[in-house]
Write a structure and sequence with these properties.
The chain has 153 residues and is mainly alpha-helical. The protein is built from 6 helices and no strands. Helix 2 packs parallel to helix 5, helix 3 packs antiparallel against helix 6 and helix 4 crosses helix 5. The two termini are 27 Å apart.
Amino acid sequence: MKEDIFEGQLTGKRYANFVWPSILMMVVLSLYYTIDTIFVANFVGEEGLAAINIAYPLQGLMWGFAVMLAAGSSALVGIEMGKGRRKEADEKFSFVCVFSVVLGFGFSLLGIAFLTPIVNFLGATEVLTADCHTFLGMFLWGCPFAFLGVIFE
């Protein structure tokens, strides 16, 4: 028989079971940024490191939208599953997957179309503009896949 996760007293062990996946995700994401920074600093140099630091706010905005979409959609799908309506839950999940890819492409296209004003707004100097364009250009093409990846987490 399955244990009802909402019954009984909340203990430290039960709480840890709820939060460890989120903590692990944040650690992995932090490692991604740290490793990215180490490689860029060692192989590209100071200008490359400065360029990715200028680009981080745009990355944070993208991740924020993706996580917001994932959190909201998981609640909606969970409600449908809790009501025993598997077909409606599947339909909502399918819609969210398609919507996340469309939103990711929209984010990519807007970012690429306005890349120069965005880079200038974020504070890139003439020396850093080319590196910022390179880094953000590659990053922006991956947004649809990143959005979908966050949905599947």
